[in-house]
User: Fold these one by one.
Assistant:
Number 1:
Amino acid sequence: MKIGIMGGTFDPIHIGHLLLGEFAYEDFALDEIWFMPNGNPPHKTADHTEEAMHHRIEMVKLAIRDIPHFRINLYEAETEEHSYTYSTLKEFSKRYPDDEFYFILGADSLFAIEEWKNFREIFPFCTILAAMRDDKDVQRMHLQIDYLSESYGAKIELLRAPLVEISSTTVRRRASLNLSVRYMVPDTVAEYIKDHQLYKKRG
């Protein structure tokens, strides 16, 4: 199978995440998109308590439950060590040797990927789908793709996605102020946030 991987803290998952997954699924004829919540990402400051992790996982499940080609993968969520992309992809290549992986990331991450731990070890195990949401950056993106391809043998494709100015930070801030997050997250996730009074004590 051709599998797209969407990693993130998903604190909470929002419409932008889902749109990116759907565009990748359609544009590259993928069979499934795996949403993979990070358990202990080295570069994020998510709440790492067991309760917070449970809520993040439940919101992902609610967001994708009616979409047959979307799946949740808990590999990184269940590890107590830092979640590094290179080690996850290496492990997936062993577990699923007949599958082909496409790692979905944003433009900012593509330009910062040389700062990632053991970044060279990412490229042999996947094709990177780099989301580009601003037409004026096409040339800059192509230059970065050419650079990474020539320098490290990376396989990278541009993923065209709609510009959605939504972030998990904005959702958390609005929820903390008891403001509506409707249309920013799926209705099921908005209801979950409200029912569990999430983000009231942390912005």
Number 2:
Amino acid sequence: MAEYKTKLLIIGSGPAGYTAGIYAARAGLKPILVSGQQIGGQLTITSDVENFPGFAEPIAGTELMHRMRLQAHNVGVEIIDDHIVEADFSQRPFICSSENNNIYSAQSIIICTGASARWLNLESENKYRGFGVSGCATCDGFFYRGRNVAVVGGGNTAAEEALFLSNFTNSVTLIHRRNALRADQKTQEKLLQNNKINIEWDSVVEEILGSDNPLSVTGLTIKNVKTDKRKKIKVDGIFIAIGHHPNTDIFKNQLDLTPEGYIITAPNSCQTSIKGIFAAGDVQNPQYRQAIIAAGSGCLAALEADKFLNEN
């Protein structure tokens, strides 16, 4: 057990956390960053990244996060691989405790705990994650140009990802467990009018099929929940779009959250409902979930935290 005291505590790694750390360290705040359960965040389960500025060639998500971590460390961020499990924001300094029984005391906090994709919880899904199984069409869709893909889900996210993928794939199969979509009417109309998109109603994915050498997805086994009939479809990739869960459970009853659990921040700001506590990245932005946007909000949070600390 150890006790750490800092002007600024950053909870969570990933693009938002590391960027916040870089800017805070350069401002002389000597921040401590607690990396969390998934060091590097969602990008560590992404294969190649082609849309992060500054890299002419694709870079693996794990490598990108490794470089951000090194940069943060080199400019003076104290990085501790630990996981915050309890927080007390009732007074300053704010107190957080970890699963390793460490105590962190901070005058200001930036929360960058992100949001975790909901998965199908299939063994084959885990096997091929990053090798044909993805949770982000915007991130990975480009790699399936001219190929056949599937999208699982029935809400706005699934419908929008299917429409996005139809711009450059050969075909998109949308798999939905019900006989009606939950997406808004306008999006549904676009979806149903798109001749590249086929919908498998009342269906669920039972197994993801693939090859071991190289590790890649080759198809799916789906089951109709009304008839129990099964069939196989050939696809090169599958995108799971059944929602995300913001990692905010320990902040409930302390910070203002949306009904879905995302942290509410002031307009054009990372300021939460408690002065001195800021939120950046996917934990407060459920719409875009892009690394470059998370990094930008991490920068904003650090600048706001620096201003807060200077004024207080």
